[in-house]
Amino acid sequence: MKVVVHWSGGKECSLAYQKVIKQGHQVACLLSFEYQRPYVFHSFPVMELQSKTLGTPLKVVRIKKAYEDILGALTKLKAEQGIEGIVTGDIAGAGCALVHSSYYESMAKQLGLAFIMPNGGDTYDVLKEVVGTGIRPVLNCINTNFFGEEWLGRKLDPKSVKELKALADEKGIDVASEDGQGYHSTVVEAPLFKESIVIGEYKTKKKKEKAKNWKRNWLYMDIKKCSLQPKQESH
After folding, report:
1. Which residue segments constitute the domains of the chain, with CATH numbers given?
2. Could you tell me which of 170, 153, 160 has the C-alpha nearest to residue 219?
């Protein structure tokens, strides 16, 4: 099946990409949505390199009206590229997936597309699966209500994931940040990457978000320079 993968550059969409490739699907493009400028949660310069090293085109859609703009992008991709399904990395039944899946299920039904959510189960198990497959995310955006600044830029591997689990339990947040409260990630290494991504120059910046019942104090990496380099041989 020819599919499009909803792409943030983060850990779960990278895992979903790997899974649908293994299942035999053809990924026509990575589809990313820009909700704000600057977009603090994920890095478009890194996403461009991810696209390049995967050999899969990246399509970025500027969002003003979420449902209408996403539906329009999918309608165009179906007409022009013949996509048959949409893939999302959200963890089925958890956090933000409850909102995103209702969006995508409605759109998929309207357009006659398959809707695929290959990630499911306990969020900690999914996070361990991410790093267990060799995907290496970096925490590029953290909520300082829960995280110390030393976590910004930290790479997730089996050791740091255990520390993250202990911190998440202590603070009462989801370890994979499926509730949208704790952090966001960007992937710099993955089995399907032909090269590794190196983050060079960046500025550390802050952004506050407020609603009636919560506030989030984001500290994020405004990445200015990043590059591809040959993968190091593992021993």
Report:
1. 2-230 (3.40.50.620)
2. 153
